[in-house]
Automatic annotation (TrEMBL):
Record bears the keyword Hydrolase: yes
GO molecular function, one term: nucleic acid binding
Record Gene3D superfamilies: Extracellular Endonuclease, subunit A
Domain DNA/RNA non-specific endonuclease/pyrophosphatase/phosphodiesterase: 18-121
Protein's recorded name: Endonuclease domain-containing 1 protein-like
Keyword list, A-Z: Endonuclease, Hydrolase, Nuclease
Length: 128
């Protein structure tokens, strides 16, 4: 992963191709929701890559706090306690067509559905 230099101005090429922090300034009902949370990563370098904005989608704050984050914690607990091998997790979204605008341009596409699937080849079948 290439680390970009920090500056007051985001390079235009990056801003044209991906989400930047400024896109969330006017998104008052939304927060960045992780697709792959850091808790699902064991290696520190893998954990750090989860903080990229390309790993986030705008989620309604209430949904993030009351549903998505508790669900991610439940999955993490199940895998930590009952998976006796490496696990595999895939997360995805479908989009509604609506978007959050910044400077009169569509910047953040709002998800309609958010899903997660996991596989554990050696899952304890006697677990809850």
């Amino acid at each position: 992963m290439k680390v970009l230099p920090l500056s007051d101005d985001t390079p235009p090429l990056i801003e044209d191709s991906q989400t930047v922090l400024d896109d969330y300034i006017d998104a008052v009902d939304y927060r960045r929701g992780p697709l792959t949370p850091d808790q699902h990563q064991a290696d520190p370098e893998h954990k750090s890559s989860t903080y990229m904005l390309t790993n986030t989608v705008p989620l309604v704050t209430d949904f993030l706090d009351s549903s998505w984050n508790p669900y991610l914690n439940l999955i993490r607990q199940r895998l930590n306690n009952f998976c006796h091998s490496k696990s595999f997790i895939v997360t995805g979204v479908t989009f509604s067509g609506a978007a959050i605008k910044r400077d009169n341009r569509d910047r953040l596409v709002i998800p309609k559905h958010l899903w997660l699937a996991y596989c554990c080849p050696l899952y304890d079948r006697n677990s809850p």
